[in-house]
Amino acid sequence: MQFNDNSTGATEWDWDFGDGNGSASENPFYQYGDGGTYTVVLTVSNDGGCSATTSQLISIDDRIVVPNVFSPDGDGVNDFFTITSGGLKSYSLIIVNRWGNVVFESDNPTVHWDGTSNGKACDEGVYFYQLQAASGTNEYAFDGMVTLIK
Questions:
Q1: Taking the model in full, what pTM does it have?
Q2: Which of 3, 46, 53, 93 has the fewest CB atoms found within 10 Å of its own CB?
Q3: What is the pLDDT of residues 68-119, one digit of tens each?
């Protein structure tokens, strides 16, 4: 999850992500280990010693949503095969073509397939994926197909 400080004049940041972890970065990225509801607290300070605090309740859904089609045609709409997930502790995605050749693999849920393999655009058609992932409470295993349309 990407967090952003929208205050002005702050020189110090103290983020509390609500799960026992925090950050002193201005705009930190944080990945929750489990789904659930968390109260995120940000305290900012400036050079004059003034400080302010705000909080926000957020929900992290540890379910996984896998699309069945994408169109990497550069129009800015649905250009990536993006698996929506949150709160995952492990993640492994492999995509193969119809001959079983690996065209994409990732162990990072924030890395999305752009429809290329080794720097070359893949042909339009059906590709097959295997996804294994785990959150703090669930394990997932998906096998399926995705259609690449240009």
A1: 0.63
A2: 53
A3: 999 999 999 999 999 988 777 789 999 999 999 999 999 998 899 999 999 9
